[in-house]
Write a structure and sequence with these properties.
Length: 1739
Amino acid sequence: MSEILCQWLNQELKVSRTVSPKSFAKAFSTGYLIGEVLHKFELQGDFSEFSESRTSTAKLNNFSRLEPTLHLLGVQFDQNVAQSIITEQPGAATKLLYQLYIALQRKKKSGLTGLEMQTMQPLTNLRLQNMRSEAFRERLKILIPRQTDFNLMRVTYRFQEKYRRMREDVDRVHSEKLERMQKLSEEQRCFNIEKQRLSRRRQNEIMAQIQAAIIQIPKPASNHTLKALEAQKMMKKKKGAEDVANEIKKFEALIKKDLQAKESASKTSVDTTGPMTTDLLNTYSDDDYIKKIQKRLEEDAFAREQREKRRRRLLMDQLIAHEAQEEAYREEQLINRLMRQSQQERRIAVQLMHVRHEKDVLWQNRIFREKQYEERRLKDFQDALDREAALAKQAKIDFEEQILREKEIHEQIAVERAQARYKKHYAVCAEILDQILDLSTKVADYRMLTNNLIPHKMMHDWKELFFNGKPIYEQASIKQIAAKPTEEQLIELEKRDLLDSNDYDDYKNMVGEWALPEEMAENLPPSNNCILGHVLHRLVEKSLPPQVESTEPELLSSSVKGCVLGKTFSGKTTTLKSLQKDFPVKILSIDTLVQEAIQAYHDNEKVSEASSIPQEDRKEDQLTVRAQLGAKSEQLLKKGKSIPDMLLVNIMVNAINGIPVNQNWILDGFPMTLNQAQLLEETLTGCNRYLMEAEGKAAQISTLAVDPTTSKEVPLPSSAFDFVILLDISDNSSLSRMNDVMAEEFSRVISHEDTSEHAAAESQHVDVDPNLRDQIQHRIIGFLDNWPLLEQWFSEPENILIRINAEIDKNSLCQKVKEIFATEIMKKKNKVEKRLEEKEAEKKAASLAEPPPPTPPLPPEPEKEKETHQQRDPSKTPPAKGKPQSGSPKGKPPGGKVQVKKSPVGSTDIPPTPVAPPPPKPGSEEWVYVNEPIPEEIPSFLVPYWELIENSYINTIKTILRHLREDQHEVLKYLYEITTSFQEFLRRPDHKQDFVAQWQADFNSFPDDLWEDEETKAELHQRVNDLRDRLWDICDARKEEAEQERLDIINESWLQDSLGITMNHFFSLMQAELNRFQDTKKLLQDYYRAMERKIPIDDSKRFTRIPLIRLDSKDISENQLRIPLVPRISISPETGVPRPKLKAILKGKIDYSLENVQTNFEADERLVMDTWQQASLAISNMVAAEIHQRLIEEDKENQPAESKEKSPQMSTNKKGKKENEPPKNKKEDKHGKGKSPPVAEAAPVVFTAEEIAEIEKKNELRLRIKEEHLAALQFEEIATQFRLELIKSKALSVLEDLITKVVDIYKLMEKWLGERYLNEMSSVEKLTEVARYHIETATKIQNELYLNQEDFFINGDIKVFPDPPLPKRPPPVEKEEDGTLTIEQLDNLRDQFLDMAPKGIIGSKAFTDILLDLMTLNLGTNNFPSSWMHLTQPELQELTYLLIVNSEFVDWRKFLLVTALPWPIPLEEELLETLQRFKAVDEEQMGTVTFEQYMQAGLWFTGDEDIKIPENPLEPLPYNRQVHLIEFFFRLFADYEMDPPQLDYTQMLLYFACHPDPVEGVYRALSVAIGTHIFRKVEGPVMTAEKTSSTDLSPVEGYVETEENAEREKREFAEEKEERDQKEVDIPENANTEKISMETLLRVFRGGSEVKDANRFTSHLKRENIYAESFMKVFQELETKDLEPIEVAVLLKHPFIQDLIANYPDYKIPDIKMILQRSVHVAGSDGERSPSRLTEEKK
């Protein structure tokens, strides 16, 4: 039953969960599926409230909702049933589902819905049911425990299970304890037995001593009589045994004979039985019976054999016992005989027998005990082996599982690392793509702003931001920054600083935008002021604290230092151990060193007594350094912390320091992180690489002056290692090696035989292996994380890293490492030898390069140096003046500098000494700087002063360049805004279209009769001229407005303000250069005066200020201004003459609106030139003033020295005096004439040679200081003048570029304005031409004339007046073709027949009369086509005969269906598909559909889709016959007595099941009635064939058919029949298993039915179906109960049904072609018949 219910649920209802008989109770325990079943039958409306959960609340909810519905269906259901279903009791759910199945089938037959069933119940029952439901719910709550109770039960069960396991553990422990107790008791028992054995042994020894003391009596001779008796006894025994054996053999032979007899008897009985017995035996399986008998006989034989064996064994045991008894008897007789001797012998014999008996007992006991011992030992040994094997097997399994888990963990970690790496790379790529996108959009934006001409500087800045990873677009505003700026503001500040630094670098290095012009590239100034750099370097050194240099000599050691790194199990320790065997090398492992340090601490390792220890720290410092480090390590490890890197490095360094200097050492697996490597190198070498690199970068920061002698890059120290070897293996290899080591260790531990060794090995395995297993993953990950940084560390600055593939065999790896180590030893040896050779060479060069003792210089040499210096100075000053247009220095007074130029003129007469080499120039490499001591307070003042100068200069330059950069962006934006705003202004709306529309309306409003009038045309032409003039006036006005807008844009003050701001920026640059020069001059002056022991000059003179341009008209007093301001120079257009450069800018015809721009640009250019000349002149004046000040001070110092130098002893002094006189006289003439008298009055003083030499030395030093000071000042002057000229040229180019851009924009505006004006004028002309054309052609302008700004076109989408209406297309009309009835004729016939016989069955005579009346009385009704009008009464009767049902009636619906041909005859599959569509539309399953549902479902054919629409609008559309046929079929078969009309679609499809073959038609009808295909068994050939849906049958088609066509048709029918037969041969086995009821069968075979005819004679005729009784008999013969449905296959086998199908004619399509064809032939032979003739024929 459960299988039937499962099939019903799964296949028919298709519940949401598949139900099987095994899980039936569990599936329905929640009640959800029961609710789903009721929901599918529309009985459970609240199914959405059901829950699939298995909680008690969900079950209570589901069954509470099910109870009313089940009571409504009459299913027995109460709380006990619900509880049994919920608790999944067997059969409860099956019983309920079976009752539900019966109730639902009963409900389905009744056709009532759930609401109807509930409504039909009395009100009292409904109230009672509600009360029952409430009571059921309350009782069910009591019966079903709560979910918390269920949870509590589960928790209780879980704890009970836990308690049971604990009890089992306790019992197991108790049993083990009992076993141990038994074992102890067994050991105690063994001990007692051993003790007894020892006592017996002592007793035996005593007895042996006693026996040895007893006199041995000789054994008497053997008695022959006794032997004879024994022999006789033995013979008797043998004979008895033989007799027994013979009897047994006889017994067995008799048994065999009986068995053979029985078998032969059974065989003969089998042979003699007749065929009937054979059949019965075969039926009842005689073989099994015989086999059972044989088996029983064999078992009896086996039992007998076993009994015989037992009997024999018993006999043998009796014989053995008898022999033992006889032996005992003989011994007793022998003893008795022996005892007959003397009393003494008897006593001795007793003792001997007692002793022998004890010996036997002892021997047997010993044998038994030893046997027990052996068995126990074997058992224990076997148990131990089994236990060890089981443990080993389990351990192996666990080990393999552990390996798999580790591999999975490793793969998971690798995947996570790969994902993290992917995310990181993806984020980087996404960021790069975003920046690329920002850069592209930025470029696109500025291409729009600059008309595809982006400035190079902007593109360069964007690229810099892109390459540095900064966002291109502004993230936040930095105009107002708070105390804590946001992250976006910080990014913007970084962007600004980056661009500022790049701009400053370009400005400083004169590249990029600040690249030198061609005319300036020839005279480049010196790139660096070496003298200033030396001064700054010396000041900085003086300000810094002195550094103590180590005086220890460098020790060169040839020892090789290295380390071996790699992952865990890469083979580091193995290779190093192998290396240690072949080379004298010390291997240092950090793990070993840490353990040794901790051990040293435990061993209380102390320092030797020789070392002096203070009394305060003696307790702490008594331990060695290693012990102290070990104490710190142990303290950290006890706290569970890791040892820090610094402590590990200290332990390692302490061990390295303990190694001899010349001994090689290698670190094993250390350092492991970058921090350890840095700390180790810093500790071993004393240098921090990162710190030195940072210092180097800080030293490389751009400064204004650099000392070339000290700016050389300091090389980084060499690494602490000579080589680093990486043993590279993959992660899988590392894990595999770990697993191999663990497996080897495990197998070694298992193979131990000694228990103590086994325990030790096991403890070691427990200590080491778990740590290794747990740490292997972390070690691999740690190595992968740290190795990239370590690789970079060991690869820079010198690559000492050596990679080795460690995934090779052990010997090859060791050999590779040995080769590398030998190579490194040779390299280190060669390096040490080379260093020694270099030191030797340096020492020799130093000894050879010692200069000879200096000789005192000649007196005239300082004067010559002075003269040469004065000759060089004038040659350097002219380039600093730039290239003025006049060719002379502007505004330079002929002061001291002119005298310096002319000073060498007086000395040209003195020939130079040919022997002396040319003196070195100050600042050159040969020049020896003056490094005289300076006061200590001077560096502390000058160094901050220089930093202030440098920072102020750099910040000012960066700020100015930033403003210039921002102004460039603002200029582009402004120019784009004015161009776009001007374009928008040009595109502003006008009102020309209004005038055009009004004119077009007036033009079209003229009457049609006036179009050809000449005066009218003239009037229209005049109106067109007026419209044109008005439109031209609008264009002129718009042009004037646009010109005024352009002039307003030109006359704005933006250009002048922008030019002024830009010039002020460049003037600020000049001011920055000027300030730097003044500050540098002041610093040099203070430095050299301090070196000369002079007081610095208090410069009260204010710094030179370059005036800026005043941009507003406010009056500000000079006292309020720190920076002077000058007004803009305005040049009138009359006086200003444009220069050629401006003409090039403003080329083309003269635009007077731009004259002001031209004149203002020339004024600005002159202002820039004047400002540059002013700054250049100020620098020249400052340099001249400094030189003049130097000369004045020199004259003051030389005046008292001249009198001292006058001595008659040295002629050279005179020459020097003569040489010095001319410049002194010149200076005295100009600066002070009062100085000469003191010199003349000075009295000569005599000095010694030492004083003279000291004076000359001071003079030489003063001269060198002067030369160096002036040279540094002139270097600064040249560089500053060059910078100013570069700023001037850059300012002019920027201003010119800005003017060019603005002028181009203004000209572009003028071009747009002119083009737009011309376009508007041309559009007006086009409008005029169109209007004149329509005037001349006298046609109206239907489409709208559109004139908007410069566009004119005729809008074809808009018409100003509508088109004339088109004529309507006539409706489609059906034409008569080939005698086919039209739809209208079919409807007329249907109306006639419906009035006569609404049920569809009419008497044959009445049918014939109706047809004859319609044909004869065709008074304009046109009920039939012309070809039907020739039919006679006999032909009509023959036609009626083809349609007769049961020889009396005619189905007029079938007649109309046949006459409606051609329509596609459906296949059986198409009929079934159409039936399924109707059923799907019929939601209530009433068997009828309305017209809307009928059209929605559709038939097997549709209307013609390829109907061609005629081009002529007056021609009607083609008539779609098939669409109208579909509608006609509904009208034909629908029941119009119902409202709305209903169509019985099954009955209709039964009509369409008709076929040319009546048998095939019956099968098709059965298929339609049942709803599935019925297979047909064909016994003989049938000449008719089924037409496909594409074949159309027409009753009048082929009337003139030839015999060839008929034969061809027969052949086609035969071929189609053969194909169908081939298909029907393959009938499945389970075909026609569907069941058919009596009602369905009577519906298919309608032998008679109720007739309601309109004829007065047949109005009350009634007739029942003639097949009803026959069908009942058939059902009874097929043994059906209560006429229940029966399978089709069984029904088709009945002879009556077969005969009925073969002879039933109602499902045959009658062939009326024959009648119509004959009628046509008769009509053709006799001519047309008149209606009177038809009337006569009728009579």
